[in-house]
Amino acid sequence: MASSSSTEHTVKDNAGDGAQNPETKEEDKKDDSMFECNICLDTARDAVVSMCGHLFCWPCLHQWLETRPNRQVCPVCKAAISKEKVVPLYGRGSSKQEDPREKVPPRPAGQRTEQEPGNSFSGFGFGDNTFHMSFGIGAFPFGFFTSTFNIGDQRPHAAPQGTQQHMEEQFLSKIFLWLAIVFLTWLLMA
Amino acid sequence: MANIAAQRIKREFKEVIKSEEVAKCAIKLELLNDSYTELKGEIAGPPDTPYEGGNFVLEIRVPETYPFNPPKVRFITKIWHPNISSVTGAICLDILKDQWAAAMTLRTVLLSLQALLSAAEPDDPQDAVVARQYKENLEMFKLTAKHWTNVYAGGPFVNSDCDDKIKRLIDMGIEEHQARVALSSYNWVLERATEQLFS
Ligand SMILES: [Zn+2]
Ligand SMILES: [Zn+2]
């Protein structure tokens, strides 16, 4: 009851002079509380989630686990937890936040599993397999743009320098570049 | 670190005064200083218990390491309960000791204490005398707890038999509270209480 009437009130106010009214702010706050740390009750910083799903600031959870070394339990549901088994949350633009509190070791890193190389085309897989991309559009007159672009590209998934695959890629790229130049010359001559 | 404690109490305090328990007058929280380290709590005696109708005041001290360590809480209002010292008001409750969890709040502490009044645990006592009475003579325990609630917490149940016996001891030069403790401890047998007081 209370919430529905307050919404009505907010709508009415917004329809009027559009002045910032305290009740809208109040509701915004309620939404934010979803992301509040269960220890400091503030918006979670360097957020981590326990396996039982409870959200904390990493410094807060770290201190809790330090306070009771013999009793490593979730501060909310008392499930067994450990420092290593927490999932960090990486929000947009939240990577570099200085923490004025004590020096706390960094959060455990998120666990990444590389995508299987076989099905790279399924998800519009640019960059996952340079060789296929070059080959696929290399025959097109302007394909060399793609090819040259790929040579200098510093993608994390490009084959490491010096390996067999790397040399093959370099070789193929050069062939396509050369073919494209020939093709262009032919076009200009014609 | 004192900063996080104060910040949290500030937030908790705002939440408590908006909570429905406060609206129902079941719990109450009051700040005693500006640094958010000392508070006064109040809980209403739960219905269908000897504490019904009483209002129990608690002293709450927030340590610098809060919420990583529990608040220090004791009863200021005198109470007859197996898990609360009838002398000091000290409380034996697991969440105020090793079962504390950082996500608990002053609100959950007050509600847990209220629950403790409804469900005593005589096997894990704070006050051995009260706990023994609870286990050996439950009716006598209830009568005594009701009487204490009436005298110290404003409960409605007046027991004229208890009042008369206390008056007899006062007439013998015994201080009122001392007389009440002696009679309560000896199941309101006047002779035994007198014997203990003058031995
Ligand atoms: Zn936090
Ligand atoms: Zn949990």
TrEMBL record, chain A:
It catalyses: S-ubiquitinyl-[E2 ubiquitin-conjugating enzyme]-L-cysteine + [acceptor protein]-L-lysine = [E2 ubiquitin-conjugating enzyme]-L-cysteine + N(6)-ubiquitinyl-[acceptor protein]-L-lysine. It is found in: Endomembrane system. Residues 37-78 form the RING-type domain. GO terms for cellular component: endoplasmic reticulum; nucleus. It is an enzyme of class 2 (transferase). One of its GO terms (biological process) is ubiquitin-dependent protein catabolic process. SMART domains: RING. Gene3D superfamilies: Zinc/RING finger domain, C3HC4 (zinc finger) (3.30.40.10). One of its GO terms (molecular function) is zinc ion binding. Pfam families: zf-C3HC4 (PF00097). Pathway: Protein modification; protein ubiquitination. CDD domains: RING-HC_RNF185. Residues 1-29, 90-119 are annotated as: Disordered. Keywords: Membrane, Metal-binding, Transferase, Transmembrane, Transmembrane helix, Ubl conjugation pathway, Zinc, Zinc-finger. InterPro entries: RNF5/RNF185-like, Znf_C3HC4_RING-type, Znf_RING, Znf_RING/FYVE/PHD, Znf_RING_CS. The chain crosses the membrane at residues 171-189. Signal peptide: none annotated. SUPFAM superfamilies: RING/U-box (SSF57850). Residues 95-105 have a biased composition (Basic and acidic residues). This is RING-type E3 ubiquitin transferase. It comes from Phyllotreta striolata.
TrEMBL record, chain B:
Its EC number is 2.3.2.23. Pfam families: UQ_con. It comes from the Eukaryota. Residues 161-199 form the UBA domain. GO terms for molecular function: ATP binding; ubiquitin conjugating enzyme activity. The active site is at residue 92. Residues 4-154 form the UBC core domain. Keywords: ATP-binding, Nucleotide-binding, Transferase, Ubl conjugation pathway. Belongs to the ubiquitin-conjugating enzyme family. This is E2 ubiquitin-conjugating enzyme. It comes from Phyllotreta striolata.
